[in-house]
Amino acid sequence: MNPLYGGIDLHANNSVLVLIDEQDQSVFDKRLPNDLTKILRQLRPYQRRLQGLVVESTYNWY
Predict the structure, then answer these.
(1) What is the distance between the alpha carbons of residues 32 and 43, in angstroms, rounded to a whole number?
(2) Distances (CA, A) of 41 to 19, 24, 29
(3) What phi, psi does 23 have (nearest 5°)?
(4) Pairing mode, if any, of strands 50-56 and 4-10?
(5) Which pLDDT tens digit goes with each residue over 2-15?
(6) HSE (side-chain half, CA atoms, 13 Å) at 56
(7) Do 26 and 5 meet the contact criterion of CB atoms below 8 Å apart?
(8) What is the reported pTM?
(9) Which long-range contacts does 11-15 make (Cβ < 8 Å, 24+ apart)?
């Protein structure tokens, strides 16, 4: 099972989620509404492979 690494670019109303493999190939790239249930549902198939997840947000989010 190849590991994946992810990033979330957090905006006011939506987030862009990207997952990449060890060869820097994108395996998931999607803009989603800022709804935790929807985001987790989209990430669930990758859960076991996901090694790390970073979040980039603007200064308005704490």
Answers:
(1) 11
(2) 14, 23, 14
(3) -95, 15
(4) parallel
(5) 999 999 999 889 99
(6) 7
(7) no
(8) 0.87
(9) 11/58, 12/58, 12/60, 15/39
